[in-house]
Amino acid sequence: MKKFLRKICYLLIFHLFIKRKLSKTITEKVKGFTFKVYPTVFNPTDFISSEIFADFIIRSGNLKGRKILDMGCGSGIVSVFCASSGAKCLAADINPEAVKAAGENAALNGFEKDVIVIESNLFENIKDRFDIIFFNPPYYPKEPVGNFERAFFAGEDYRVLKEFAACSKSHLNNGGIVYMIISSDMDLNVVKSIFSANGLVFEVIEEHKKLFETFYITKTLV
Fold first, then answer.
1. Which residue segment(s) compose the domain that 76 sits in?
2. Which of 61, 92, 175, 185 is deepest in the core (most CB within 10 A)?
C-alpha cells in the first residue's frame, strides 16, 4: 500500500510540477549555490537525494587537497559542494547536457579552477585515481530511454551498478572510499552483493527517512 501511495503521489507531483520544467532551462538555488539545469538533466531540487548528499558533504568537513570523482554528476551539485570544501574534482556524466550544465555551474559558483568536467560512460574516459568517489546511481533495474531516464534506470539487473562496482577499485587511491546515496526502492541486499562480488566492503552509514521513501548513504572500501 505504501509503495502504491508513493507512486500516486509521485505521478501527481511529476505531472503538476516537474514535467513542465523538463523542456526548458531552469535556474535553481541549493544552500546558497546557484545551478542551471538544462532539459534532460537531473534537477537537484526536484529530487530529495541531491540535497541529502549535499548535506552529507557539508558535514564531512574539510576536503582540502582531496581528489574527488563526481560520477554521474548531473548539474554538478556534488562537485560544487566538494570544491567549496577545498577539494579538486572531476565531474563525469554520459549526458552531454549534464556535462555542459556542470561546467557552467562550477564557473557560476566560482569553482572553475577546482572542477574539471568530462563526458564519460562511467569510467570509460577516466584514467585517474581518486581519494573519494561520490555516486548517486540510477535506482531502478530497467533499460533507460533517452538521457533523462539514465538518471533513474540502471539497465536490466542493475547493469550500471555492476559495471561501476567492477571498475571503481582500480580508480581509488590507497584508503580510497566510495560514497553513494541509494533508495529503499532498491534491494539493499542485492546492492551489497554487487559490491561484495568485486571484493569491496559495503556498509550503510546513514539513514534518512522521508514520507514514502528512505534514503541510505553507503560507504564502500577496498
1. 2-221
2. 92
